From TrEMBL:
Family: Belongs to the flavin monoamine oxidase family.
Cofactor annotation: FAD
UniProt xrefs under SUPFAM superfamilies: FAD-linked reductases, C-terminal domain (SSF54373), FAD/NAD(P)-binding domain (SSF51905)
Protein name from the UniProt record: Flavin-containing monoamine oxidase AofH
Listed PANTHER family: AMINE OXIDASE (PTHR43563), AMINE OXIDASE [FLAVIN-CONTAINING] B (PTHR43563:SF1)
Keyword Protein biosynthesis: no
Sequence ranges assigned to domain Amine oxidase in this UniProt record: 17-449
Alphabetical UniProt keywords: Oxidoreductase
Length: 452
């Protein structure tokens, strides 16, 4: 640990993947780096938890990586970690309009008119997404018009059938952990473009959901932290003071000073943090306009993955909540069996005021609706309401409502004097994914090195 009497060259605020990546790159370049983390653990929105009854390690936060995500995959290799494929063998399930359908591939076997409607709408949506510059959505053609309406408004105008409207709203929940009414159309398009289209965000093989980290994604952050000299937990920053020579960060345990600072936390968490001098108005306003997504992650553990015996993959979508998306989250050896259910957007808000026991019952009944009564009797369950995490404020990431990209987007990554910004929200590729977090940390570290 760097002695308190010696100021580091750089302080990184936040020990998630973005902050730890930045710290590692700077340390490797010979800079003295200190990391301040408000939590009592590293990892941010990744968190691998060992279950008490079975001893199974499960990811309560981010967990998937894919071959189309070069930054995080390279980091995993550098750290000596391994990945294994998401189980996807068998038929998927879709509960749409009260009908339970079994299918393979991306789209359920809906009536021909519905399939034609989906093909036309998805083609139109992805064609628009390809016009959006990844690093600067506000410069897109017709950006003002696209940013003035919600994703839900566009769906209502362009989808001709209720089934396709339901599918697109499920896409919004699964990818943004939000209802489409919470997003601007420009944001939905830009975010989709990061994955190369709808499939890039929703499919397994060859896409973002292909692999999981052996032992849990929390191992990425832990190995990064283990390689660093000075990581201080339980150190929330209460005030930021900047002058011509450096930046002073005040914490309950004392002040820390460095020549430059990288702040790698969700922007909304900074809206109540005092800065002296105050941040530029555009940056301050941006932080006030970026609420986090709403998600409860629920897992049920069974002695065996019984759904595989029924020829099912464990992957399902449902327009009847509260669980709307499921995956087979079993370990690579296949036992015990684990069903993962996501409760997102308004479905999650509907359960917020319930106790854990009530949420458990509601989630299990959703699983039983899809997989049968055997889903009602797990050996163990675990849940995580990310909106209750004070140093995250929600998951998976920030939501850009109407007018935010065009009004404030230029401030998202622009340094303010000696203060630089990282975090998955600031990513130039794969925004709000682990890959985006790693990329943002690399970018912020490069800015600091160039500025010194």
């Amino acid at each position: 640990m760097i002695p308190d009497s010696v100021n580091p060259d750089v302080i990184v605020v936040g020990a998630g993947l973005a902050g730890l990546t930045a710290a590692r790159r700077l340390s490797g370049a010979g800079r003295r780096v200190r990391v301040l983390e408000a939590r009592e653990r590293v990892g941010g929105r990744t968190h691998t938890l060992r279950l008490p009854a079975t001893g199974l390690s499960v990811d309560m936060g981010g967990q998937w990586v894919g071959p189309n995500q070069p930054h995080v995959m390279a980091l995993i290799r550098e750290l000596g970690l391994e990945v294994y494929p998401t189980h996807d063998e068998g038929q998927n399930l879709a509960l749409i309009g009260g009908r339970l359908l079994r299918y393979r591939g991306l789209i359920p076997p809906l009536p021909p008119l519905v399939l034609a409607d989906y093909a036309l709408l998805s083609h139109r949506f992805e064609a628009l997404a390809r016009t959006i510059p990844l690093e600067a959505p506000w410069t897109a053609p017709d950006a003002a018009e696209l940013d003035a309406q919600t994703f839900d408004t566009w769906i209502g105008k362009n989808a001709c059938t209720p089934q396709v409207r339901a599918l697109m709203r499920l896409y919004a929940g699964a990818v943004f952990s939000a209802d489409p009414a919470e997003l601007s159309l420009l944001h939905a398009l830009a975010y989709t473009a990061h994955g190369g289209g709808i499939n890039g965000h929703t499919l397994t093989r060859g896409h973002a959901l292909q692999d999981r980290v052996l032992g849990g994604a929390g191992g990425i952050a832990q190995r990064l932290a283990d390689d660093l000299e000075d990581v201080r937990l339980d150190s929330p920053v209460a005030r930021v003071e900047q002058d011509k020579e450096g930046v002073t960060l005040h914490t309950p345990a004392g002040a820390h000073r460095a020549g430059r600072v990288i702040i790698a936390v969700p922007p909304t968490l900074l809206s109540g943090l005092p800065f002296a001098p105050p941040l530029p108005a555009r940056r301050a306003q941006l932080q006030q306009r970026l609420p986090m997504g709403t998600v409860i992650k629920f897992m049920a553990v069974y002695e065996r993955p019984f759904w595989r015996g029924q020829g099912l993959s464990g992957m399902a979508i449902s327009d009847t909540g509260p669980v709307t998306v499921t995956f087979d989250n079993s370990p690579p050896q296949g036992s015990p069996g684990v069903l993962l259910g996501f409760i997102e957007g308004s479905e999650a808000r509907g359960l917020m005021d319930m106790g854990e026991a009530e949420r458990r019952e509601a989630a299990l009944h959703s699983l039983a609706r899809l997989f049968g009564d055997e889903a009602l009797t797990p050996t163990e369950t675990v849940q995580r309401d990310w909106t209750a995490e004070p140093f995250s404020g929600g998951c998976y990431g920030a939501l850009f409502g109407p007018g935010v990209w065009t009004g404030h987007g230029e401030a998202l990554r622009a340094p303010v004097g000696r203060i630089h910004w990282a975090g998955a929200e600031t990513a130039r590729v794969w925004m709000n994914y682990m890959d985006g977090a790693v990329e943002s940390g690399e970018r912020a570290a490069a800015e600091v090195l160039e500025g010194q």
